Amino acid sequence: MPAATRKRRWLTICAITASAGLIAIPAGAAPARHGSPFGVRAQAQLAAERDGSAGVVTPSLAGEDDDGGEADEIAEGADQYAEARTSPGIVAPGAYGAAWSSLANLRGTGGSWSNITDLPYNSDDGRYRDFDSNSSGGSGYVTGRMAAMAADDDGYVYAGSAGGGVWRSRSGGGHWQAISDALPSQSTGALAVDGGGRLWLGTGEATTNADAYLGSGVYVLSDPHRGTFSTRSRVGGDELESTTVHQLRFGGGKVWAATSEGVWSHSTKKLGGAWKLEFAPNPDYLPGGSKAHDSSAAYKNIANDIAIDPKDPSKVVLAIGWRSGDDYNGFYTKGSDGTWKRITSGLGDLPADPDGVGNVTFARSADGSRYYAIDQSPEQLNTNPDSGLEGFFVSKSGSPTGPWTKIADYKGLAASGSALTSGGYMPGVQAWYNQFLTVDPSDPEHVYAGLEEVYETKDGGTNWSTVGPYWNFGFSCWSIDPAKQTGDCNPTTHSDQHGVAIGRYHGKSWVYVGNDGGVYKRPVRGSQDSDGHATDWTSLNDGTIDTLQYYSVGIGKDLDHGGVAVNGGLQDNGQSLLRSNDKVMGSNFGGDGGDTLTDPANGCNIAEEYVYLAIQVTQNCAVNDGSWVNDPSKITSYGVAPADNATGEARFIAPLSADLKNSNTWIAGGRHIWVQTHGYAIRSGSEWTSLHDLGAGRTATAVAASGGKVYAAWCGPCNDQGFARGIAVGNADGTGWHDINLPVDGTVPNRYLSGFAIDPKNADHVFLAVNGFSRHWTEGPGAGVGHVFESRDGGTTWTDVSANLPDVPTNSAVVTPNGGLAVATDLGVVYRAPGHTTWKRVGKLPAVAVLQLKLGPDGRTLYAATHGRGIYTFKVRDLG
After folding, report:
1. Is the entire prediction scored with pTM above 0.85?
2. How far apart, in whole angstroms, are the C-alpha atoms of residue 874 and residue 14?
């Protein structure tokens, strides 16, 4: 999809997780969507609409001035993240579990990791109201994506993150403690508290079914107020390993699990013994089946939810279906012969045909009188540019078999105080990604529903209010005033809703919502303003919970305060900036933060990449009071995207690097390898020069340079349909460019090439990090073995130096000042000391993906950008 149809978004692009396995979904299965009404300069455009101010500037980054396509970006970003770990084939179940065991058995270095982002992160920080910031949207303190929530009546709240594990609060939210760090999967699919007070965890986030890491099964914590999860607490055997879990439901003495491999059940009393496969619509595609290695196998048995009749637990309805549509999609129940059959009639307004049933969420009232449902429609997803939502429904009989009545559609929700009222991006446009639903235990007609926003009805669906609007831009109460969080608007939640729970604390009922920005709460019966927006949301992201999903990290000296300034690009949470005297991090750029460059000599010189090589630069940390809205000369950040952004010929997270010997020389990679030599003084995308054309259909996956020598890795095609990879080498002055011969013979595997590390003392001495799994786990041409390779002749020949390195995807590498090599993997960091051939595990981290490593300005500190647990540091001297 050309970048010309994409727009810059803040708090939106969603779909990366980290923990223990992958679902590989063919690119063709990703849903096609249209765009958002909010532009690359959302504040300026909305201010212009509100005030009619002719003086407001509304320029845009190269190639990002059309109709959006944010939901496209969600799917595409997820797909590309998966490609790096699965191509050229299909990864067999158990790969991450085996890697985790192997990593745990490595000898360790001395020293320990320190988390430096374990403090509040204010997305509305008044210091950063520059042209490329979306600060003042109203979400306040944020952290990484929360996939599931649970709560009880004793003030205990449980938050399950996409890639950073499960967290517990004993005080009704806040003051969090991680409770699942011992598990081999930190990806949450479902959380549920049963009638006995036990906490159940289904691992493997099922939000997107495209990029989500697979889990390691279902676990139960018998004393969740005090205990922590362990591998010994797994329920059943390994039947659910390498699946995702969408929901856990209870009934008839069983726990039911809706997974990526069908619906399973297990006794809630006897936790040993195997899980029972209740229903899989296409069993031939399950592991061990005749079509298990088919490229479409991963989405042939998607189960979304289970509804159990409260009056008769033997009556169960299954919601089955792939979000983009398949012949098996539908609702199923057991017939008189004991077999599962599709329900073809009698549902009322709830669709029975496959085109109308996609991602579904159920919720029932505590008294059994009502069942509610959200249904996403594959047909709407594929044909309606505004929304993929079929609707909200209620069964007033209390039975999941209905009859069901529609109580809301996307147009009605848009009219309920929504921020999403423009064509191309209306409520439910991401219903395949955003859904939650719950009923007030004390009132069967009081319902909370989540899509991109949070909605509430107090009368069973006759009337709805958008109590948590997408953001506050566009409302008359909004202002960019840095003295206020969001003008005169009340705080809202972060966008893109995934989990919900209702619990009590100090005798008062609260609703807790989990979304792409973390956890928020309000009284179950809270207050609203005249627009129906809640006036009483509180962010619970107090800094004790750090699940931030970084793609990158940058470090430079803090010339104003001493020490260093640390910034990094985040999934759906912009660019964070931590100055040396900060007690609260701020966000100085909006959108998804991709790769980043920071001047080691001045940490306020920053280049931040949005997606597809949309780069912007600042030389003052993007500190701005927002006065640029009326005086364009006060803008202090500048769009400088190279031309591959406009043509769409760059990856979602595209590589960006500075020359090791000259920080003013930058290399960027799309279809072309680009160079610019003005450093942070660059002001226009036209200042980039193309060094080398990788060729049509090829795009850079990694770039690096030292002393003018440039290395570039590429893939094309990048999925498992004919996957190919290669390396091009040349000079920053444009001379000497040539492709390295990398035959598919195992010398360098035919897998995704993810990073270079150049020896600062010799530019011909370079290391290569290779993603994916070896051919032991990957079925595909030339998958090969090995994850780290070394060349001493400028990339002409390579040697596998993986030795005892676990078979786990590697993402980044850095040569330490003493000549050692540190490597970032999907499960932590490893290190090879100079003169040695074997690897050690660096400290102890949870099972979280580390996507980038960098050294601090003095070379004494190693910085790790994790995709689920923030940024960590490690003293180089402790590596050994």
Report:
1. yes
2. 29
